[in-house]
Each structure stands twice: as structure tokens, then as C-alpha cells.
Amino acid sequence: MARTLTPIDPAEFAQICARIDAGEADRADLKAATKHLLALLQRKAPGHSVEVRIPPFAAIQCIAGASHTRGTPPAVVETDAETWIALARGRLAWADAAVRASGERSDLSPLLPLVP
Asked: Going by fewer Cβ within 10 Å, which terminus of the chain is more open, N or C?
């Protein structure tokens, strides 16, 4: 089941982003950035109608509307960590991203980017 995540310190996130931009990020950096950005999405769009999955690092529920408790949620967004980080940082447009999105409210473009 998806859970609420906590953002990391902005200075730590900035250091991770510098390593990502330099092509020096490791798995731990991708995991930390993914969870941080998902935490920001949860804060920006609280709710349980859309499940955002970034395997293997995390999954959250967000956006107000009908919620679910078991089985496949009514709306799912799934992509890899690199794509999610680029989307959430405004480095990639939703329309250009390799994202699997289905169901109502699964277009996250009005909520992105999450950081300047």
C-alpha cells in the first residue's frame, strides 16, 4: 500500500541534483530524489485517487477524488526514476515522457514541475 513520504533537506536535494546533472548519480541518489519529489507531489495534490509508481523505489497515492483500498486503483501513473526526476524538475515535458498513465486524473502535467 502506498504511504506518505517526507521530503529531504533542500540542500541535500540540491547536491543530489548536481550529481544527476553531471551524470554521476548512483542508485541511492535516484532513490532519494524520487522519494523527495513524490513527497512534494503528495503535499501539492493530497488525496488517494491516483497511484504514482516509480519502481523499484516508491509508490504514492495523491490527488483528491475517489479512493481505493484493494486491488488496482482507478488511475495509475508509472515510469522509471530518471523520467520521473526529469518531469518533476521541469527538464522533460509530460507529452514527451515515456509514462504509462491510465484512468481519470492520471495526467499530472498541471502539477509539474514540482521544483523550480
From this structure: C
Q: How far apart are CA 46 and CA 80, in angstroms?
A: 22
- Report the distance separating Cα 33 and Cα 17, nearest Å: 8
pTM of the model: 0.93
Neighbouring C-alpha atoms within 13 Å toward the C-beta of 14:
4
Per residue of the chain (116 residues), what is the pLDDT tens digit?
A: 456 899 999 999 999 999 999 999 999 999 999 999 999 999 999 998 999 999 999 999 999 987 666 667 789 999 999 999 999 999 999 999 999 999 988 999 999 999 98
**Residue 78, all three cell numbers:** 508509472
The whole-angstrom separation of Cα 18 and Cα 66 is: 38
| H or E element that contains 77 | strand 76-78
